[in-house]
Specification:
Elements (H helix, E strand, L loop, with lengths): L6 E5 L3 H12 L4 E5 L2 H10 L4 E5 L7 H10 L8 E5 L4 H10 L3 E4 L4 H81 L4 H31 L7 E5 H15 L6 E4 L8 E5 H17 L5 E9 L3 E8 L27 H14 L3 E6 L5 E8 L5
Parallel strand pairs: 1-2, 1-3, 3-4, 4-5, 7-9
Antiparallel strand pairs: 6-8, 9-10, 10-12, 11-12
């Protein structure tokens, strides 16, 4: 803003004072207006946009203090800087002027250079304040616009998540319907081909394929619900040592006395309590043991170890198998794509689900290869308060 655009109001009941002040200000190309009383000054400020007011303190009727208070009490004129022109230079008068809201003061008789310097300083401060206010306004406007855009984007994401969840629900239902028919047909075929050895092999192959399809349907739906926070955990206090023993026994039964697989777990100590969804934690442990068996060769020894700290229960599952390929260890809990060279059928989804389940419980899971061979999966779950 150039100086000839600044508008200054001079308020004094003595015409000679107005003339002297005005001549000094005109030399700097300021636009000048004047008032000879406090009320006239108030009226002029309501109809004009002044950048600064030079206000005499000693005036008949309404003095400068009261005039200042009234001008600054009006929201329309509250930001106009006011400089007192006063013959008084005692401390109490100066303090009273600042208490009324004045920004500065100049004493009579005044020095022209000092007056112009003070006027120039407060005009620049006013300009800088207005520039800052404008910047803040524009920034707030941009923030509001950006917030509105983000809200729209977030709403769109929620819509897409809901649509994805609904779609997977439909897919799961559509898969289950024919699967129920397949399972029913398998039982009928089993009765018909009971005495046909080749027929029994065919039935088992169909049954296995149907089971895998059902497992995939349930697993993909679970992963999606955990990813978008729509899965409702059914949590209660459980002793994880009892759960490990049960999972061990279940897996041994499913092995059909396979002598090349050994699962070791001693539940000598109790009191490993967690607040968790038992079905999901059982699934995590069972799937990891299943992977250790399925993706290793020859004799497999699996060790289950449980420990606790002040805050967590830690479950370690070790095997003596081939371990994880080093190049996939970093992303072993990601959902592998079918066209990825790292993809192993079934393995990626199970481990991805395990990580999401642990995260939903406030825990974590990691995998590493042992120095002596084999792999280790370490699970951490927050300990229950009663444990």
């Amino acid at each position: 803003m150039e100086t000839d655009q600044y508008k200054v109001l001079i308020v004094d009941d003595i015409p000679k004072n107005i003339m002297v002040l005005g001549n000094n200000l005109l030399s700097e190309n300021y636009q000048i207006a004047y008032a000879r009383s406090g009320q006239e000054a108030i009226d002029l400020t309501l109809g004009n946009s002044f950048d600064l007011i030079l206000l005499d303190i000693m005036m008949p009727g309404m003095d400068g203090y009261e005039t200042c208070r009234r001008i600054l009490s009006n929201p329309k004129t509250a930001k106009i800087p006011i400089i007192f022109i006063t013959a008084k230079n005692d401390f109490d008068s100066i303090v009273k002027g600042f208490d009324a809201g004045a920004k500065d003061y100049v004493t009579k008789p005044f020095n022209a250079k000092e007056l112009l310097a003070r006027v120039r300083t407060h005009l620049e401060l006013k300009r800088n304040r207005e520039t800052l206010e404008e910047l803040n306004f524009n920034l707030e406007k941009k923030v509001k616009e950006r917030t509105k855009e983000l809200k729209k984007a977030n709403d769109k994401i929620k819509q897409l998540d809901s649509a994805k969840s609904n779609f997977l629900g439909i897919v799961s239902h559509e898969i289950r319907t024919p699967l129920n028919g397949i399972f029913g047909s398998i039982e009928m075929l089993r009765d018909i081909l009971l005495n046909n050895d080749d027929g029994e092999d065919i039935i088992e192959m169909i049954s296995d394929s149907a089971e895998r399809l059902l497992t995939f349907s349930e697993l993909s739906t679970l992963i999606t619900e955990l990813n978008i926070d729509t899965y409702q955990l059914s949590k209660y206090i459980i002793d994880i040592s009892d759960l490990l023993q049960e999972v061990k026994e279940e897996r041994i039964l499913k092995l059909n006395n396979m002598s090349e697989v050994n699962i070791h777990y001693e539940d000598n100590e109790k009191g490993f309590f967690i607040d968790a969804d038992e079905k999901l934690i059982r699934k995590v442990i069972g799937d990891i043991i299943h992977n250790s068996i399925r993706f290793n060769q020859e004799t497999v020894d699996i060790q289950l170890v449980i420990n606790k700290s002040d805050t967590n229960i830690q479950i370690e599952i070790h095997d003596n198998g081939i371990g994880f390929p080093e190049h996939v260890l970093e992303n072993v809990f990601e959902v592998f794509h079918a066209d990825s060279e790292d993809y192993v059928e079934g393995k990626g989804l199970n481990l991805a689900a395990a990580r999401l389940i642990l995260q939903a419980h406030g825990g974590d899971i990691k995998a590493e290869n042992s120095k002596d061979g084999g792999a280790s999966v370490i699970i951490n779950i927050p300990k229950s308060e009663i444990g």
